[in-house]
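Handout, tutorial session.
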Amino acid sequence: MAKELNEFLSNITVTSDENVDTDLIGLIKEGENSGVEFKTTMRYDMRENKVNKKLEEVILKTIAAFSNAEGGTLVMGVDDDQNIIGLENDYRTLKNGTKDEFELHLRNLVNNAYGVEFATNSLTVLFPEVEDTEICTVEIKQGLKPLYSEVSDKNGNKSKKFYVRSGNSSQEIDITEVASYVNQRFE
């Protein structure tokens, strides 16, 4: 499935808009799995109606989990029930509200968390339209080295965590198991 998805995404620029729409709708209808994750927004909290930096941490955790496993695709602007929400809520949180600004913000988050080399070589960011609504797909390659995510607890204390994909979710690996996983996965 992941190979088929990667093949699809690498050919996305040479297919017609109609095929992209049909293929992406099919991918979305299949739901989340070990190679696909949906996020409604990158930073806009739909419940609180404001920017929530914790959501950006969740995006970064998901990117790391895919990289630490077999790679995959993060789809933003789609909720867990496969509804196409779009990016307008996130766009409104940015100065000019454009997809270029959205991508720049996303890449800056990734650059700061995992470095420019990773952001440049391991991510492909696209903005396809589905049902006349713009969404964002981020294809994450299988990583060559482990990625650790800095997360904040409810008191604002930061710590490094290690995440991988497990089925349709990103899971933290217990500190006692990280060395073994890294040794097996990144030989």
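The second record follows below. Compare its token runs with those of the first.
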Amino acid sequence: MIARRVLGDFVFMKGAIIAGYAAVRGEADPFPLMAALNGQGHPLCLPAVAGDDLVFRAWKPGDPLVVGRFSIPEPHAHAKERRPDLVLVPLIAFDRHGYRLGYGGGYYDRYLSRHRAKRTIRAIGIAYAGQRVDDLPHEDTDQRLDAVVTEEGVIRFERD
């Protein structure tokens, strides 16, 4: 359902690089969507932790993954680094303002802050409808999402 909603509600620039993630701990799985986007010719990538930073490395369905930091599957270190145009973001919860609760490392927030200062990069949370809450505590360094897609629909947010 999530893949169908994204494909039906968003227009992707030809050749846009899409970053996803390998779902862990019951997260909504973006791999069906990523397989469809790969079939449309979009280059894909997945996150990997490099020191205190998040990098994105080339990946396509069927490529092997290795266990990275925090036991999260990621591409091999020799996979080419990519700069995504769109990042599909995992989350524990999200609120009506577009803030998300992650696992507390701030990796996505730091990556988005650094790269949004230089270029256009969109962030879409992938979640289940039950993960929505009214308000989450947030700090000035937290990056808001452009949208969240759940099995029930698409929720768009305006960023400042």
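Points raised in discussion: The radius of gyration is 15 Å.
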